[in-house]
Amino acid sequence: MMSEVHVHGVATEDARAAIEGAGARAVAHGGLVAIVTDAAAETRAAALMRRHWDVLEAVAATATVVPVQFGTAMAGDETVATEFLAPRREQLVAQLAALDGKVQLSVKGAYDEPRLLRAVVEGSPAVARLRERVRGLSEAAGRNERIRLGELVASEVDRLREHDAGRLHAQLDPLAVAASREPAGGLQTAVNSAFLVERARTAEFAEAVDAAAEELGDRVELRLLGPLPPYSFVADEEHAWA
Amino acid sequence: MAAAQGGYLERPKPSGLADVIEVILDKGLVIDAYVRISLIGIELITIDARIVIASVDTYLRFAEAVNRLDISEDGGAGLPELMEGMTEGGAKSKTKGALEGVKEKLPGGGGDDDSSSRRKRTTSSRSRTRRSADDE
Lengths: 242, 136
What we know:
Helix content of chain A: 40-55%
Radius of gyration of chain A: 23 Å
Strand content of chain B: under 5%
Number of strands of chain A: 9
Order of helices and strands of chain B: HEHHHHH
Radius of gyration of chain B: 20 Å
Distance between the termini of chain A: 29 Å
Structural class of chain B: mainly alpha
Largest sheet of chain A: 5 strands, antiparallel
Strand content of chain A: 15-25%
Largest interface: A-B, 100 and 83 residues
Order of helices and strands of chain A: EHEEHEEHHEHHHEEHEH
Number of helices of chain B: 6
Shape of chain B: elongated
Helix content of chain B: 25-40%
Oligomer: heterodimer
Number of helices of chain A: 9
Distance between the termini of chain B: 27 Å
């Protein structure tokens, strides 16, 4: 009787102790282990996400991990071994080797909205002009102008974001093995990027983030997350293998 | 500023739900659809996490915010200066901003709502020991 399992990631056999220490199980095949937990009564997405995160973080603290996409469930241990680990063994071994000794560091920056908008108004004559005009109009009469003003501001913010993110990457990319610009989560997102960094260079990278934060000025609040498992650096080779 | 230097990795990792979602969603190895079972409920949180940002409402809100700005006061740095990435002398350390927020924590057990917990906190637990993961 097979029982459903959630699959969190893949590591090598020597990560077994770490996996069990993280409250997960290791399903082994050919020197590889899949990190799984039993699908229990828990169905709340937030709790499941937290478990996925916690398990991978704990294992990644001492071992190299290839994260599997959150939300992956399989019919049981046997299926994990024969339908996942076995057919993709070669690819998984190669990925584990490529990620060995590296961690993900994510840099997130949020704009301070008043400072950001002030910079936009002061830096764009078009925005400043439209703003003056809108201010003299009633709520109803100025609706279209307001929308245009907001649109113009949003596009200026986009421009600024490109500029800021470009600068940041120019400073940080040289310290990383790979970099990935993630989609901005909202208008206030200045930067949302992931970097794959040699574990030995994390302190150096953090110093570079400090320096970059200094340069970006106080309209951006920059945060460094990590070390994390290499979530953003696992190539989706589904198509290549299909 | 100098005091805060190099402090990042000695801090507890951020684990607010918003960060968790942003970091893990749609990331990682994809297992072929025919051998996997999808989890229920994931789609919902995916939608929540990706609010459409370019809408009339957003523009109106932006316009409103811009109109409320008191430009004359405070003589803040203009765009040209900011664009140059100049650091303003009197401004408080940017790094402070950078270092705050790394304290985010989700209440244990993975609650559903992190709206309160993901508020920034001042850095206060620098005594937390460096995680073993960061060492070697």
